[in-house]
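Reading a protein record of the kind used here takes only a little practice. The record below shows the convention in full.

——
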Amino acid sequence: MKLNKMKKEELELLSYQDITAMILEEKGPMKTLDLFNKIVKLLDLPESTIEKKIGDYYTTLSTDKNFLLLENGKWDLRSKHTSDKVLKAPDADEEEEEEEEEVEEKVEIDEDEEDYDNQISDEDDFDDGDDDLKDLVVLDEEELELEQ
C-alpha cells in the first residue's frame, strides 16, 4: 500500500522503522534528514520534532539490520544490496589500533622504575608494629567494671 494513500491513523500505528522501510521501498535510497522529514510530514508532526528526535532516529537506523548506509551517505533496505556495496564503518579500524597502542604504552615500564624496585628490600616495606603494642593489655568485661 502506498504511504500517501494511508490514513494518518494507520500511519501512527506503525513504527518509524516500518514507515522508513515503506518510504525506501517506494522512493529508493535517501539521506537521513530527508527520510525523517518525510516521516514528520506523513505523521503531521511539528517541525520541532526533527531537531528533538533526529539523533534517536539515526541511531535506530544504524542499529536496525534491515537498513544499510551506502557509500553516498544514503540509507536503503539491506535486502536490495549485496555485501560489496556496504559502507565500511569510518574509523573503526583506526579506533582499534589506537586502543591497542594505548594498552602497549601502559604495559611499558620505565627503566628508572625497574632500578628503584630492585633497590628496595623486603625489610624496608614491612613494619609489624610490635613496638606500639608491647604495653597493650587485654581486659575482659568484669575487669573493666571493677576499674570504673
DSSP finds nine helices and two strands in the chain.
